[in-house]
Amino acid sequence: MADASKPNVGQQIRAIREKQALSLRALAERCGLSVNAVSLIERGENSPTVSSLHLLATALDVPITDFFQEQYEQPIVFVEPAQRLRSEVKGILMESLGTGLHNQQLEPFLITVAPGAGTLDEPVTHPGEEFVHCLSGEINYCVQDEVYHMAEGSSLLFNATQPHCFHNAADIPATLIIVFQSENGMDLARKRHLSE
Q: Which domains does the chain have, with CATH numbers?
């Protein structure tokens, strides 16, 4: 059940879909998810995975960050912890650390990965660059065919057109700062990290 005190990513997805005059069925066909899955996400009864967010963002032709922001732009963005837009599924909590600038190119997220959770079965690619910093715990981050074991203080920067995924093989949660950088300022990279 969705927490009414937290911003609802599903409401943002629905607002964008309706603004584009798309039916639930049309969006489902575009993104490859079932009509029921899209409906549950929009109603806040099911949180989208990183993969699903990417699929939905691609289908709607918007950056993933559009799902994590109010529908207005600001010259300065200040976010208190309780105000973070968030999505949680399969042991991965994704929280937006700031979105809403005009032509925003950087998309910062705080990601908490539970023990055993990750995206090994769904590597993603997207335009631009990706920066990862491990705040606590440990995480295995795979880029192309190389696995990088990250611990507290480790950083990773790479061209995000290479297939990449991550997995927490440790017995404690891992906390990461991930920053997506759009290649052209038009398509924010978070699209690809939020799907089913």
A: 1-196 (2.60.120.10)
